[in-house]
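Ticket reopened. Same input as before:
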Amino acid sequence: MARSPQLKARTPRIWADLPLTVKGLVVIALPLVILIASLVMLYMAFNAESRAEEDVRRAFAIQRDMYQVHSLLAEAGGGVREFILTGEDRSLRTLNDAQELLPQTLARLDEAIEDRAVREAYEVFLSLSDQKLDGLEQLAEIATEGGSTGAIQQSLNSNRTVLDELRLQIDEIQRLEQEVLDRRRAQVDAVRELFLRLTAVSAVVGLLGSLAAVFLFSTGIVRRVHLLEASAERLERGEPLPAFPDDADEIGQLAGKLDRASALLRARESDLRESEERFRLVVEGVRDYGIFALTPEGRVATWNMGAERTKGWKADEILGEYFGRFYPEETRDYLPEAMLGRARRDGRAEDEGWRVRKDGARFWANVVVTALYDENGALKGYAKVTRDMTERKRSEEALRAAQKEAVAANEAKSDFLSRTSHELRTPMSAILGFAQMLELDQDGFHERHRVAVGQILKAGRHLLSLIDDLLDISSIEAGGEDLKVERLEIEKLLTEARDLAQPLLNAAGLQLDLEQPEQTVWVLADQRRVTQVTLNLLSNAGKYSPADSRVRLSARVIEDKAVIEVEDEGPGVSDENIPRLFTPFDRLGKGGTNGVKGTGLGLALSKRLVESMGGEIGFYNREGSGGGSVFWFSLPLAGDGAQGPRAGTAARAYSTEGSA
Amino acid sequence: MTEVVTSNSIQSRRILVIDDEEANLLLLRTLLEREGYANVRYLSDPTKAVEELIDFEPHLILLDLMMPQLDGYQLLEAFRRQASPDRFLPVLVLTADKTIEARRRALALGAKDFLSKPFDVIEIGLRIANLLETQILYERLEARQSNGSAS
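Engineering reply: fixed in the latest deploy. New output:
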């Protein structure tokens, strides 16, 4: 009992799992086979019928032939009797006919008889017929030879019984044949009945089978195809698919694939929706950029928070409105359309300019319009990103103003220096000019006046150089004069300074020695300033050197600097005074009697000049019997600096001297 | 044939001095008188310079750069516009502005020479004489050329 539902379940299962080809074959072949079988049976029934008819015909033929044999023999007997009576040969013609026709008829009979019992009877019939014919022939012979009447009578009698026996035998055969015929007919009827029944049954079975096949087809295939169709429709609508029997045939596989496709599609759709949602949230949440879409006609289609914040309209106030209203009156007529046109032509249009908020306030915006096209290349609309640049614009303007101010300040400073220079030098011009005029005429002067004119000139010139140095220092401190740093060769700088200073020093009775570096040295410096400093140091050395002494100008490389030294044989500077050397107006030995001329600004100016080029300046007393001072300043080497080996010994000598 | 430019012909040239500082004008007057120049006009109001240029037709101009109302650069431009192209009118610029920029600008605007104030009185005398000598030679060359083309 327990197995039967299982079996029941398994049978449709097997059917369901059959491939469609096999199913189709079964559905088409089953009724076909039944039809052919019933046709065969009909044919067989027809065959049996025709055989039965044949049997009847044959039975009739046998009957006819037997009667013919009988009649031939009877006629022959009649003829013989007539011959006996008449003796006319003509009467024997029937006997001749019998002799002639009998074998043919008998042969036909022999052929026609099939049934064994009939044949036995026929054998008797045959012998009787032969006996009869023989008897008749014998009788005819006796009569011909003129035999005795008794012999004839005896022969006649025996003949007569033979014919009767023959007659009886015919009846017997007829009876037998009828029996056979009846039997056969009954047989044929039975067969026909059977076949008709079978045909009817097979027709019913065929009909039922076809119905079953159609039912199976409709349940197994059509129903499932409809299910698939419904599933496909649901897939199209994006709805989840109903459970589908997971049969192993093609439809089952198709259903499985559809199911997987649906799952995949749903997963993708959900991913897409998620990413769209994320994107939407991001766009909507952006506060610093107004991001919105425009229809191809330029009407607002979407609106984000940034747009609301930047432009002041809420989404429900602005959706569907033409975007030209964001533009101020002076550009509203042409710029919106021009932007869209440019976006269509170039794919993208960018603009920076004034836009208007809902409340009418203006803001400086950076706007990018991008044309959007669908996959067929039809314009779908525009994406517009607006950024409020007012702050940046303001800071840019502030920066520009600050720059302008700085430039103006710089100009004012230069102007001030130039004016100061003018204001201070103009009176000096008159003072020195007139003093010089007086000096030219001094031959007629009293001695006192001559001295006075001399003092005016001297003091005036000193004042002038003071003014010049002061202006130089303030110009450097104000960063006024532009530093022109370039790659310079030390050798040339020293030679130039030597050539300029030589006459001055020679005039003071001093000898200037130039000691060039051992290798070519390149520095990064402003030529004019280097020369100015070198000349300053040389003139300084000239002022403090005793007569007939030597001044030495030299240069060397120490680490990443070129160091230029000016050495004299002067008295040097006491250690406590060294720090004051480079302070403005702090002239050592001020008011002293050594008659040293100078403004007291030269070293301070030199210090500023050297430092402006990234170098250092310093002083040390030369040790030894002769004494002497060394002023040095350094300059940064150019990238490829010194050519050849560095003077390590020189560096050591410098550092020991420097520490002294 | 050599023609010497005599000191007499130099001293008779017309010189226009423009400076807003009376002291400087006086200094230059003293200097020029001492050098023997007889034909000198002194102008402390630069706005009348162009008028004076047309009226006086100087052979040399001594010009201060830094003046109120109208500065020397503007005057240099005005002179250039005013002067006929075939006339040689040297301008000696005198200024207390000793920056290289001032020097370059003045020379670029057509000044023939440049001296910083305070100047050396001997040097300025020599420069004035030199410029006038050049001016005379130029004039003679012009005259000879026009004579040559006329004959």
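Residues 1-8, 590-595, 643-660 of chain A have pLDDT under 50 and may be disordered. Chain A is about 65% helix and 15% strand. Please confirm and we'll close it.
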